[in-house]
Known about the structure:
Helix 2 packs parallel to helix 3. The chain has four domains: 17-142, 3-Layer(aba) Sandwich (Rossmann fold); 161-282, 2-Layer Sandwich (Beta-Lactamase); 292-451, Reverse transcriptase/Diguanylate cyclase domain (Alpha-Beta Plaits); 466-711, TIM Barrel, CATH 3.20.20. Strands 18-19-21-22-23-24-25-26 form an eight-stranded mixed beta barrel, surrounded by five helices. It has a five-stranded parallel beta sheet with strand order 2-1-3-4-5, with helices on both faces. It has a five-stranded antiparallel beta sheet with strand order 7-6-10-9-8, with helices on both faces. With 722 residues, it is α/β, with parallel strands linked by helices. The chain is elongated, with a radius of gyration of 50 Å. Residues 462-716 form the EAL domain. Its EC number is 3.1.4.52.
Amino acid sequence: MTPASIEKTPGEQQAARILVVDDDPRLLASLSSLLEQQGHDVVEAEGGKAALRAIDDHPFDLAMLDLRMPDVDGFDLMEKLAKVQPDCGAIVVSGESSFAAVSRALRRGALDYIRKPFDPEELLAIVNSVLTKRSLIRAHEHVSMRLEKSEELHRYIVNSSPDIVFMLDRQGRFCFVNSKVESLLGYQQAELIGRHFRHILDNRDLARGTYALTGPNISAHNPRTLEVRLKTRGSRKATRHFEITAFPIDAETWPHDNGDISHRSAARYYGTARDVTERKEAEAFINFQAYHDLLTRLPNRALFKDRLDLAITHARRSKQKLAVMFLDLDRFKVINDTLGHAMGDRLLQAVTHRLEQCLRKGDTLSRFGGDEFTLLLPSINSHEDARQISKKLIKALREPFQLGSHEVFVGVSIGIATYPEAGDSMDQLIQNADIAMYHVKARGKDGYRFFSETMSVDTADRLNLERDLRLALDRDELRVFYQPQVCSTTNRVVGLEALVRWEHPQQGLLYPRDFLPLAEETKLISRLSERVLDIACRDVGDWIRDGHEHLRLAVNLSPLQVEHPRFVSTLMDQLRAHNFPPGNLEIEITENVIMKDLEHISQKLRELAALGVRIAIDDFGTGYSSLNYIHRLPIHTLKVDQSFVRGIRSGEDEACIVNAIIAMAHGLRLEIVAEGVETDEQLAYLKNLGCHQVQGFYYGPARPKEMIEKSLGQIPARAASF
């Protein structure tokens, strides 16, 4: 039998498990026998300690306790029962009759108090009454608990639902709405009751939302489901997206005559409104992410191609022209490597903003990747339209960009392909615009060019040459020739300029003009320059150690090398690797390289000068020729460009320029090297002006190491000083 009472109809004797506790064995046996005769399951406990063990071992419906026991008294047992078996009732059977004892027992939870000696019939009546009452109380509590749980469950489902639950009358007015409407939309429940649901519909969905309930075929098996925007109130977001599911109510089965005062008796529709705003926003973001660049917010490659494909279809149908531009930023990589990717991202955003200011309505600017952009110009009349846009774009990017405390400059190289002349397909137009852009890069950057058929042939050759150039670096096909720099007064060799040649396996010996522009475009120039410097340091270093201790090595450096953040440390590492003295090295850079980023380049040059490296300005007179930067930088030598030297004839303007450059160098105490000297007339003219050093075909072309080595053996080891 279970420890719980066996429930019977009211008035029937209740069979229960009863704990009987007394320290008098005879009374204990008598009481137990009396209860067992009534069908109760009795557990005897002689004394308080035995009762404690029984309480731990068995659950009970009722305990009959003596108060006065030597070890553990009845009060302690009632306290124990209240803690471990709160549903167990207690009846005191005691000879103690004082008011204090009775009062204390009742306060401890005793249901009744029987004095010893007891009347058996009275005792059984009390026990039966207590059990009956407790049974009724339990039954009532059970029913109440079930009702309460049912009501709580209903409230939880309706009011704590993640969705708005509502009821509408035949006209669409609210009969009921749960409390979720407050947290989601900001409306109080009471203010919506009796109002039409259009009150909270966004105006854009008003017609569709009101028609939904009047549409045909709506039933319990075919509810109306639609997505609409609902208005919020207060400071919340203006609208939110909801998925509405509405069911019709069967008037015959709906309990409308229930005295309900909340208008629910008139309900003809019920349903739910689920907030799907986050899902809609996620879908919109995923869609945006799939077709846009997240940094610049511009269309990406996929969206650009979609729009270009549509534009080609429209242009073909209407017999119009369109243009595709491929834009590549000049010097972006240098800025990105120098200032960091965060600054590079800010620069791309600033560039995007300027480019967008130059566009017409209907044009599509996209970020194609990295620092590359593409631009679609639909419906143009002629090349002139694209030319004007290109000029505007170039001009817009020439102004400096302010990135924090840094003022930086970028340019843009633009290739243009027009439909249908430069291609009649999407991929062809993009490819040809890209080819045209590379031709701009090869001719000095910061400009634009239209694609022409001859470029395709050049591009095929360029790809083959690029492949061979990469192999040349791996196969050690580069050669270094040296052109002497001779003192104009002593005719002694004081320096050697290192010039690269490429011993091509099929085409023979190639000169710098044949492959250096390609090396610049493909970013191979840094590897190539480092290889040349390694070879030159090895060769000239051997000659210096063989006794020509004042022999100077002059090397040309590419803009990419000089602009790299680790330029100084990389150069010094190379010198240390070959044990080459820094004082015997002279690096040649152009004015344009310096002026592109005067602040950073000047700092690097000062670091090199402090380590003993000499600085020479190559092709002086063809660039900025600004006295402002010359006196601010640690420059040791000016090299007069050969175009001026060739023009040294009586009365020509070039001779005047040479005069001015040499005079300026003397005033600034700089050395002068004249390039391209080929005749006695030129040499005599330069000597007369006081030009320190000359180089050119007058003394022979650049020669390989073996020929230079023989010549050095015939030259005094110590060059004349100036």
